[in-house]
């Protein structure tokens, strides 16, 4: 598949709204301490700290990972990514690329992309999917509908239509995208996180909404969760009612929500709070109204989470996993490590499985737990794999914890066999040893680098 060029993506009527791009700063690398039990930011012989352009295969577990962003200065931010599997099996990965030295949410940002034809073992050079419009564009969600249409959404701050969420549609499997469609449904500040698209399957086939596309959003002020939906492949959008406000939960209320369709037809919404737990609410009428929010049993700091349904395939049906819910979240033990509930370090990054419609959780296992860094805005994508049955493709940003001189956000890609999330291990809190390498390979070189 050819590389996606900027010219192919900027359609008539929208290109005039684009602002100029600032040049990136001089390349720099951050040396990260190894003073941890399992360094997930290892100092390899050929490069210190994170380095883009290298895939690391780990020993014994079938996991491989890479850094897909490019740190052009010590505080570079690359965050909020998502991956879509296209018709030919190739991957399109896009993320928020804060291309200047500013890294706060309001800093200049564009949407960048890479492509992969080998399941994420190598990637094309970085290209631009969406130039900056207004003061900022960020928070990508990608989805390939059952119709074949590929949807791409992002939030635009202070653009020609105000601060709104746009959706762009591709009818050629992600080669080009059409003009932006406002998906705010009349609300002036309606925002979605990354990886928040979902297509309904109507498992009982009694609601008549199979194929409906939904996008979990929150409304400002109040950070109130809401479902936005389309019945025509993303051309027009409507909205349900907001989740009730919990005034006793403080300013974050029910922030950065996601939605999962359950096997009994109900919807489950999850979100972040400042209360030391993650939040949940339920809908019995397909997202039109929601129950009063309540705490989840899973704890954590004020931080985003991502939940996805394990898709049905010959492999997942054989294993009995189809329809389970895979949930990724920061799982901080506040009793063991006392911290403030609000904006504390977002670690460790854990995963859990629900087999009863999110009523309870099992197989709680740490993905990564380096205490010198924090993790956020994880995306979850499933990919069929001939060798291991199915893989879970994760993106997450990795950032040094507060107190470091520099705090870059590197976008990390991790490919994990689905079976890893179900394995019974002696110490589920140990997490993945990302330094335990079998080999590492440069993307743009045929030779493989020698093992450490």
Summarize the structure.
The protein has 452 residues and is an all-beta fold.
What does this structure look like?
The protein is mainly β and 452 residues long. The protein is built from two helices and 28 strands. The protein has a seven-stranded antiparallel β-sheet with strand order 24-25-26-2-1-27-28, with no helix packed on it. β13 (213-219) and β14 form a beta hairpin. The radius of gyration is 21 Å and the shape is globular. The two termini are 34 Å apart.
Tell me, briefly, the overall form: globular
How would you characterize the largest beta sheet?
7 strands, antiparallel
The DSSP helix count reads: 2
Number of strands: 28
Structural class, by secondary structure, is mainly beta
The run of helices and strands is: HEEEEEEEEEEEEEEEEEEEEHEEEEEEEE
Q: Estimate the strand proportion.
A: 35-45%
What separation lies between the terminal Cα atoms?
34 Å
Which residues sit in consecutive blocks of at least 5 with pLDDT less than 50?
A: 1-48, 445-452
Rounded to the nearest angstrom, the radius of gyration is 21 Å
Neighbour order of strands in the largest sheet: 24-25-26-2-1-27-28
The quaternary organization reads as single chain
Percent helix among the residues? under 10%
Give the secondary structure arrangement, pairings included.
Blueprint: H1 6-9, E1 54-58, E2 64-67, E3 77-85, E4 91-98, E5 110-116, E6 127-130, E7 136-144, E8 150-159, E9 162-170, E10 181-182, E11 190-191, E12 197-199, E13 213-219, E14 224-230, E15 238-239, E16 255-261, E17 267-272, E18 277-283, E19 294-299, E20 306-309, H2 314-319, E21 325-330, E22 349-354, E23 362-368, E24 373-385, E25 389-400, E26 410-417, E27 437-442, E28 448-449
Antiparallel strand pairs: 1-2, 1-27, 2-26, 3-4, 4-5, 5-6, 7-8, 8-9, 9-10, 11-13, 12-13, 13-14, 14-15, 16-17, 17-18, 18-19, 20-21, 21-22, 22-23, 24-25, 25-26, 27-28
């Amino acid at each position: 598949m050819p590389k996606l060029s900027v010219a192919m993506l900027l359609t008539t009527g929208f290109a005039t709204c684009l602002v100029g791009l600032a040049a990136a700063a001089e390349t720099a690398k951050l040396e990260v301490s190894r003073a941890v039990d399992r360094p997930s930011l290892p100092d390899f012989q050929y490069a210190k700290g994170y380095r883009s352009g290298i895939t690391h295969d780990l020993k014994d577990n079938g996991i491989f990972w890479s850094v897909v962003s490019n740190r052009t200065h010590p505080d570079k931010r690359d965050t909020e990514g998502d991956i879509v599997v296209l018709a030919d099996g190739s991957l399109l990965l896009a993320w928020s690329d804060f291309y200047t030295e500013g890294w706060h949410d309001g800093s200049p940002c564009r949407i960048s992309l890479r492509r992969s034809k080998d399941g994420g073992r190598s990637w094309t050079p970085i290209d631009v999917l969406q130039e900056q419009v207004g003061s900022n564009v960020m928070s990508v969600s990608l989805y390939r509908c059952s119709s074949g249409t590929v949807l791409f959404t992002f939030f635009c701050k202070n653009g020609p239509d105000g601060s709104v969420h746009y959706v762009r549609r591709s009818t050629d499997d992600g080669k080009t995208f059409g003009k932006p469609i406002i998906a705010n449904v009349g609300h002036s500040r309606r925002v979605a996180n990354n990886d928040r698209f979902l297509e309904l399957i109507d498992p009982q086939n009694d609601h008549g909404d199979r194929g409906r596309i939904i996008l979990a959003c929150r409304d400002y002020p109040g950070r109130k969760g809401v479902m936005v939906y389309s019945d025509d492949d993303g051309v027009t959008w409507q909205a349900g009612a907001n989740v009730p406000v919990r005034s006793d939960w403080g300013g974050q209320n029910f922030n950065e929500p996601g939605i999962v369709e359950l096997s009994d037809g109900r919807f489950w919404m999850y979100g972040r709070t400042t209360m030391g737990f993650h939040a949940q609410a339920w809908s019995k009428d397909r997202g039109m109204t929601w129950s009063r929010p309540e705490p989840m049993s899973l704890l954590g700091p004020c931080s985003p989470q991502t939940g996805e349904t394990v898709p049905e395939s010959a492999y997942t049906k054989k294993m009995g996993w189809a329809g389970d819910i895979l949930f990724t979240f920061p799982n901080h033990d506040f009793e063991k490590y006392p911290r403030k509930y609000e904006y504390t370090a977002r670690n460790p990054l854990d995963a859990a499985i629900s087999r009863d419609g999110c009523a309870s959780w099992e197989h709680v296992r740490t993905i990564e737990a380096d205490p010198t860094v924090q993790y956020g805005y994880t995306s979850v994508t499933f990919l069929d794999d001939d060798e291991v049955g199915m893989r879970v493709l994760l993106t997450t940003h990795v950032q040094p914890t507060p107190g470091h001189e520099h705090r870059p956000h590197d976008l990390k890609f991790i490919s994990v066999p689905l079976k890893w999330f179900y394995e019974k291990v002696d110490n589920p809190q140990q997490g993945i040893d990302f330094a335990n390498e079998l080999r590492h390979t440069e993307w743009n070189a045929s030779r493989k680098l020698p093992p450490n």
